[in-house]
Amino acid sequence: MSAVLFGSIGTLAETSEIQREAFNDAFRAHGLDWHWERADYLAMLKESGGRDRIARYAEARGTEVDADAVHRSKSQAFRRLLATSGLTARPGVVDTITAARAAGMKVGLVTTTSRGNIDSLLDALGPDVAGFDVVVDASEVSSPKPDAAAYTHALETLGEQAGDCVAIEDNGDGVTAASAAGVPCIAFPGANTAGHGFSDARSVVDHLDPADLLPRR
């Protein structure tokens, strides 16, 4: 195995409830009488894309909104909340990154979120979760997950074969994207994505163990 590819910022840290709070902050900022409860948000997470999530919700309510503007406000709120969140890495993440680097493997972050969100998360987590060999963000691919484009781009950038890598994903669309690119995938669902379908994953875990992911030396 030559590379470990983390598939989203949610595989590094538990960010979903911070995201939901950021959406609600953005709705208030735009004068919308919307409030997404956790149960509502869990159902929405089965489809990727925050901007599209806003647009679908507005259409269902018969409300006209500038989904792009609301989503920009949401991203600003998310980054502000991250800075004061005291966020820590999810169980086993730091150990896995450390062990992969010690084994001479590459470590990537393969997302379809914005570079600003990625940078804010990495700043919040500190130096133990940093120095990726490739970081893919929304600006580098034309199609979001579940399309395989983000993984295809990462593999081309790293010069690696799909079968020599392992992906770690926290949601159903991410697992589908990795599988479509031919990358074996470990599902590492978060608190708000545990109900997703992970039939294409090699296994489903609640913490990362380097011994299960990396080749034995």
Can you describe what's shown?
- This protein has 217 residues and is α/β, with parallel strands linked by helices.
- It folds into 2 domains: 3-13 and 88-213, HAD superfamily/HAD-like (Rossmann fold, 3-Layer(aba) Sandwich), CATH 3.40.50; 16-83, DNA polymerase, domain 1 (Orthogonal Bundle).
- It contains 10 helices and 6 strands, in the order βααααααβαβαβαββα.
- It has a 6-stranded parallel β-sheet.
- The N and C termini lie close together (11 Å).
- The mean pLDDT is 93.
- Keywords: Hydrolase.
- This is HAD-IA family hydrolase.
- Pfam families: Hydrolase.
- One of its GO terms (molecular function) is hydrolase activity.
Give the helices and strands, then pairings.
Blueprint: E1 3-6, H1 9-12, H2 16-29, H3 38-44, H4 50-61, H5 67-83, H6 93-102, E2 106-110, H7 115-125, E3 134-136, H8 149-158, E4 165-169, H9 172-180, E5 185-187, E6 203-204, H10 210-213
Parallel strand pairs: 1-2, 1-4, 2-3, 4-5, 5-6
Helix pairs in contact: 2-5, 4-5, 5-7
Structural key phrases:
217 residues, Rossmann fold, DNA polymerase, domain 1, 2 domains, 6 strands
